[in-house]
Fold this protein.
Amino acid sequence: MLEWHQTPELNWFTNDVVLFFGDVREMSNNQYQTSDTKAFLIPANTMILLYGTTLHYAPCQVTAQGYRCLVALIKGVNSMLNDDANQAQSALLATDKWLIAHAESHEANEGAVVGLLGTNYEVKI
C-alpha cells in the first residue's frame, strides 16, 4: 500500500528500516506502478521529512527485533471524515489521507481502492 497527504510528515526511526517511496505526481486515476517505487534503507536514529508529494506507507522491518517510529503530522491529519464526505470509490480514507492498495493486500479485500499495479514487493529478513 501507499498513502499520501497534502501536508508534510515527519518520521524518526530508532531502528534501521526500509521505506518504499513514490511521487504522487506520477499517479494517474489513483493508479501507480509499483516498479516506479524506490526502496531506501533508513538508518537507526534518523529523522526524515516526507513532502506532500511523497507516496509512502509503514516502514518494513529489517531485523527480527522490529522497529520503532515516531510520526508527527499536522493537527487534524488522519482524523475521521465527516459524514458528508463522498468516500465511494475514493482513495480518501481520513482527513488529508489518501491510500491505494495492491490487489493482493488485506486492505483491498476490505474495500480499499486498488491502485498499485505490478509486483507486490516485500522485504524478507
